[in-house]
């Protein structure tokens, strides 16, 4: 899918390539990002880039952060808005927009955000869309803002994966793309957790990835930390 654009709205309507909800909807923030929050690495106003159904945004709002989530899928955005309303989370707001173009941001976003978090968006973009995305979120970032990216590492998926394979990255590729607009602090190996449905005990040893205690897939990834210079 390097040049192909996934129909993300059909995925969130559960009419796409997955049976049921997309596997990255795990009912909570990705553990790697939850650990950053717990360690005090998030501050100020937060932009959740490619928020999906906004498990990350909602968790941040519950802790008192002001969060704006942006996603291309109107279905995901409506689900996020409803969840925020149901939980009484007035500090979370959501917009349907193309995050690769700053013109689609809500008014007043330029230089606004102190923390920007990309929870599995980067590898979902067409490769040719990365530069516009990175330029746009840099424009939305306040001076000294922090930026975190959680993206699939090369080899996370078998080469023969036919449909819906993300644009996985190696460390050098990730550093080169992000470093054009951001000062990189660290890139380290990490995991993306995915819900993959019931797995028989006898099949566990045959899987190409490990499972956590909840039997979610732990897939190789990178976690990048950067700041706006």
From TrEMBL:
Quote one Gene Ontology molecular function term: methyltransferase activity
- Please name the GO terms of the biological process aspect recorded for this protein, alphabetically: methylation
What keywords were assigned to this record?
Methyltransferase, S-adenosyl-L-methionine, Transferase
* SUPFAM superfamilies listed in its UniProt record: S-adenosyl-L-methionine-dependent methyltransferases (SSF53335)
List, for all copies, the residue spans of the domain called Methyltransferase: 45-160
EC numbers, comma separated:
2.1.-.-
Name used for this protein in its record: Class I SAM-dependent methyltransferase
In its UniProt entry, the species of origin is given as [Mycobacterium] nativiensis
Q: What is the lineage of its organism?
A: Bacteria, Bacillati, Actinomycetota, Actinomycetes, Mycobacteriales
């Amino acid at each position: 899918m390097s040049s192909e654009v996934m129909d993300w709205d059909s995925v969130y309507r559960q009419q796409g390539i997955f049976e049921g909800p997309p596997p990255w909807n795990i009912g909570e923030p990705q553990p790697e990002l939850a650990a950053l929050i717990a360690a005090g690495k998030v501050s100020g106003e937060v932009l959740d880039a490619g928020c999906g159904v906004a498990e990350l945004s909602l968790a941040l709002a519950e802790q008192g952060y002001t969060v704006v989530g942006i996603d291309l899928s109107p279905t995901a955005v409506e689900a996020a808005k409803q969840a925020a309303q149901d939980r009484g989370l007035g500090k979370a707001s959501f917009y349907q927009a193309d995050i690769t173009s700053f013109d689609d941001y809500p008014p007043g976003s330029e230089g606004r955000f102190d923390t920007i978090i990309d929870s599995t968006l980067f590898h979902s973009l067409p490769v040719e869309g990365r530069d516009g995305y990175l330029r746009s979120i840099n424009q939305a970032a306040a001076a000294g803002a922090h930026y975190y990216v959680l993206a699939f590492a090369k080899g996370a998926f078998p080469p023969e994966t036919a449909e819906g394979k993300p644009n996985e990255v190696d460390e050098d590729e990730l550093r080169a793309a992000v470093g054009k607009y951001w000062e990189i602090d660290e890139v380290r190996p990490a995991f993306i957790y995915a819900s993959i449905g019931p797995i028989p005990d006898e099949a566990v040893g045959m899987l190409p990835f490990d499972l956590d205690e909840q039997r979610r897939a732990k897939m190789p990834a990178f976690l990048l930390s950067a700041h706006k210079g």
